[in-house]
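Customer escalation, tier 2.

The customer says the design service returned an amino acid string that "doesn't look like it belongs to this structure." They asked us to rerun it and document both sides in this ticket. The original structure tokens are below, unchanged.
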């Protein structure tokens, strides 16, 4: 493992250790280096601005101060491109515009060398992105979900019938390559799945949702799972 990659992995391990911390000996075993090398790497992280703490004696070790971050963001080019590819391949996903803006912030604070390597590697990843619903519709659905307010939609079902529904958004779900808004339909007085691509208009109302829970939706599709970090 190259030193730059080890420094990144080291910082991630410290972050994940939380308030428990981790000993230099354990870090040395993890990265197959000497404890002296680990301490030199820790000194380099501290010099780069990482808010490290150390605790001597039994039960001691090293860690990152809670709430601290590493300036600049420590990503390898491959990790940055992986995030870029994921965002680019799912422009129809909920909050995708925010994801794109977030990725740009990350790219802006990468060190110049890493940013250059990221841009070069990104040219080797092509994405044929799916079509996206109109921005106004996506914004209304995202706002309604975030604020838990009723959204009024104009919806055309598979059979061709078009209706206007007041829906209490419960969750977004992606299955078989399509995004759905799942919510309590006040018109049908039942939980319903609405294909986002079939929503022709969406308006956030002033009415608050009544508190329908995710558990009411039922069992998720076999390959579906909530989005979360790998540490969850």
């Amino acid at each position: 493992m190259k030193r730059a990659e080890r420094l990144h992995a080291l910082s991630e391990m410290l972050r994940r250790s939380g308030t428990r911390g981790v000993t230099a000996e354990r870090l040395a075993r993890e990265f197959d280096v000497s404890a002296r090398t680990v301490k030199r790497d820790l000194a380099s992280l501290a010099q780069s601005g990482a808010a490290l703490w150390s605790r001597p004696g039994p039960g001691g070790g090293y860690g990152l101060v809670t709430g601290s971050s590493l300036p600049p963001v420590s990503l390898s080019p491959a990790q940055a491109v992986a995030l870029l590819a994921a965002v680019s391949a799912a422009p129809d996903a909920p909050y995708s515009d925010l994801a794109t803006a977030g990725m740009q912030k990350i790219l802006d604070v990468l060190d110049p060398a890493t940013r250059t390597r990221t841009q070069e590697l990104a040219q080797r990843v092509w994405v044929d992105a799916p079509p996206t619903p109109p921005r106004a519709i996506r914004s209304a659905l995202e706002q309604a979900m975030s604020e838990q307010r009723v959204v009024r939609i104009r919806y055309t079902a598979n059979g061709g019938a078009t209706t206007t529904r007041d829906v209490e958004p419960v969750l977004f779900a992606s299955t078989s390559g399509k995004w759905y808004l799942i919510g309590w339909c006040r018109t049908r007085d039942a939980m319903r799945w609405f294909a986002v691509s079939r929503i022709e208009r969406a308006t956030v109302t002033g009415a608050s949702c009544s508190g329908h829970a995710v558990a009411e939706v039922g069992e998720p599709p076999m390959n579906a799972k909530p989005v979360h970090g790998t540490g969850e």
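Tier 2 assessment: The sequence is consistent with the input. Residues 3-17 form the longest helix (15 residues). Strands lie at 52-55, 61-64, 149-156, 162-175, 178-185, 190-195, 199-208. Sent an explanation to the customer and offered a walkthrough call.
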